[in-house]
Design the sequence.
């Protein structure tokens, strides 16, 4: 089998290489460069603007942690908004919750959803759920006039291109306004080792808007080495506490109650970063 290497540059001094057996799809959308490739180690993977977004082998770690931590720390999350997440993995995990009434999903790039449906069916399996309303528009504009939600999940790519404005205080303020009185927001907030400035800026901007702001961590092999962070802004509830019946009666590969609680235990260097 012929193969070649795809190089992903993370910083000026660090890059990783993925061995690719086949390019399944490649196009320039109105917003970004999009590709779906078949890798030797990680299965099929989605690449946007030269950065690997999800792979079949480890995507469950990211998607379970961005969804189930806030869903199990809110006592009654019925109406949820996803901003981004065009591969469908966050939507898949969210739709596992039977109490969910409605999920609005706002993705700026329709081509990401189309490619994911075609090439990544195990990830994009929930788009036909009757509770889902899919909007192809700018999430930044959407939240300015959105209805009320119990939870908003910002499943964005890195803060370049169309995702850049999803990391600002103004955006987080607009999300605060479209949350119910006990609502929560969760964002992926990058690597606190490689992207310290972005990580600290996200924490600072969210904590300026929400009375409760907490960081939790996980490890995702195909993302830049070391811990990967998520940041929650909450109006009332403590996201470290698992609310109600903590039994999980659907299939999960990573998340459980102990993982939920342990994820909020931060190393000293990260605690120092957010204190400062």
Sequence:
């Amino acid at each position: 089998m012929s193969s070649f290497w795809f190089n992903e540059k993370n910083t000026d001094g660090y890059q990783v290489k993925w061995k690719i057996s086949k390019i399944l799809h490649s196009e320039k959308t109105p917003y970004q460069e999009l590709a779906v490739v078949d890798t030797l180690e990680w299965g099929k993977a989605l690449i946007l603007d030269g950065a690997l977004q999800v792979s079949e082998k480890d995507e469950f770690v990211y998607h379970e942690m961005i969804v189930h931590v806030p869903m199990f720390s809110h006592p009654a999350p019925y109406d949820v908004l996803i901003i981004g997440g065009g591969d469908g993995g966050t939507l898949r995990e969210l739709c596992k919750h039977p109490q969910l009434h409605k999920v609005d999903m706002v993705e700026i790039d329709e081509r990401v959803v189309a490619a994911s449906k075609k090439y990544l069916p195990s990830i994009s399996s929930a788009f036909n759920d009757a509770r889902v309303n899919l909007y192809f528009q700018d999430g930044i504009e959407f939240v300015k006039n959105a209805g009320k939600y119990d939870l908003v999940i910002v499943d964005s790519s890195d803060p370049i291109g169309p995702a850049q404005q999803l990391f600002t205080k103004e955006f987080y303020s607009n999300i605060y306004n479209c949350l119910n009185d006990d609502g929560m927001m969760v964002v992926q907030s990058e690597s606190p080792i490689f992207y310290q400035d972005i990580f600290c800026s996200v924490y600072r901007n969210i904590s300026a808007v929400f009375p409760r702001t907490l960081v939790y961590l996980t490890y995702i092999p195909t993302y830049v080495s070391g811990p990967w962070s998520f940041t929650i802004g909450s109006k009332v509830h403590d996201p470290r506490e698992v609310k109600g019946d903590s039994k999980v009666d659907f299939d999960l590969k990573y998340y459980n109650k102990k993982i939920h609680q342990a994820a909020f235990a931060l190393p000293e260097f990260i605690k120092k970063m957010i204190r400062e």
Q: What stands out?
A: The mean pLDDT is 92. The longest helix spans residues 59-73.
